[in-house]
Fold this sequence. Notes:
The protein has four helices and five strands, in the order E-H-E-H-E-E-H-E-H. The protein is α/β, with parallel strands linked by helices. Strand 2, helix 2 (23-28) and strand 3 (35-36) form a beta-alpha-beta unit.
Amino acid sequence: MKTITVQQLHESTGVPLIDVRETHEFDAGHVPGAVNIPFSTWRDRVDEFPTEPFHVICELGGRSASVARKLDAAGYDVTDVAGGTAEWVEQGFPVER
């Protein structure tokens, strides 16, 4: 499974970002441009994941790593964001609400 840091995510352009935190977490603040597919529903929404390369993020990295491992095994070109949204915020990067 591929991983990137939040710094690398910040420098990344044009790559879709899927946030697998639950809706209330996402609504409280997320990486700009992220699309929310909650961890609790992602298996039922696999058809909504991009067919092109994409990144996946959660709060700390556990849920996104779990989803990324499973999607990678299924043939998706997915990269996990290590450190998650918490690290993104800690680094002072912008958030959307």
